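Can't paste images in this forum, so I'm doing it all in text. The chain is below; anyone willing to post the predicted C-alpha cells underneath?
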Amino acid sequence: MSTVGEVEAAEEPTIPELVIISGMSGAGRSTAAKCLEDLGWFVVDNLPPALIPTMVELGARSQGNVARIAVVVDVRGRRFFDNLRESLTELGTKGVTHRIVFLEASDEALVRRFESVRRPHPLQGDGRIVDGIDAERDLLRELRGDADLVIDTSSLNVHELRAKLDAQFAGEEEPELRATVMSFGYKYGLPVDADLVVDCRFLPNPHWVPELRPLTGTSEEVSRYVFDQPGAKEFLDRYSELLQLIATGYRREGKRYVTVAVGCTGGKHRSVAVSERLARRLSGQGVETVVVHRDMGRE
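Text version of the structure:
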C-alpha cells in the first residue's frame, strides 16, 4: 500500500523547460520554432506574454508529457508585449527558469526578404519597410539586451539556421555552457551576435606569403605560420585564461551561451587559425564548442 508521502511524491509536478523565441520580423522566428518543434519541444506561436505562466503551469500538470515549451513572442502581439517582463518575473518567483533566443538580421537582409515575398512589415503602416524595421528595433531593444542567445541570420540560409539551433538544443543533457567561436573579416563588418570580439590583426598576414595566400587557416601550413609569429602563442594562452574567468562568471550568472568572434582583415587566415586553436582550448576546459568560419571563402 502506498503511503501519502509516496503519492504526493508521485504527483509532484515537473516544471518544464521554457524558451522564449523572439526577434526581428523576417529574421527566422518561424524557422527557429519549427526546428525546436522537430526536436520535440511543445511550440506555441504568438502566445500573449500574459498567458506564458498559465502555459507553464499546464505543462507542469502534464505528468511529464510537456517537458519543454517554446513560446514565440513578436510584434504581432505588441499590445501584450509590455506584459512579457512581468510574466517572466512571476515565473522567476516560482522557480521557473527561462532562456531567450533572439533572431537578428541586418536592415538590408530584412528589406530584401520582405520585398521577395511582397509583404509589408507589420509595423510600417503607411510608411516604408525600413520605417517598420526601425520601429521594431526600438520596441525589441531591451529584450535583445536580455537575450541568452542572439543569432544573426543575415547571411544564413534555412539549413544553416537549423544547424545552429540543433547545435544548441539537440543535446539530451543541457551543458553548463555552450560557446560558438566565429572567425570573421573586419572588411565585411563585425558580427552583430558576438558577445566577445578578438582582434588578430596584430599578427603578420599570411595573405602576403605567396605560397600561403590560396590556403586558409584550417590548413596546417597557415596555422604553423600564424603561431610561429612572436606573441601568437602567448596571446592564445592569455586569452584562454581570460575566457576561463569569464566562463566561470557566465555559469554563475546562469548564462548558457556565448559567441566569441575572432577577426582579421579578410576572415580567411589568421582569424580562422586562431579560432580553431581557441575552440580546442575551450573544449578541453569542458565548454561545448562549435566553430563557425563566417567569411572564409567569401573573397
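Confidence is low (pLDDT under 50) at residues 6-10. The first helix runs from residue 4 to 10.
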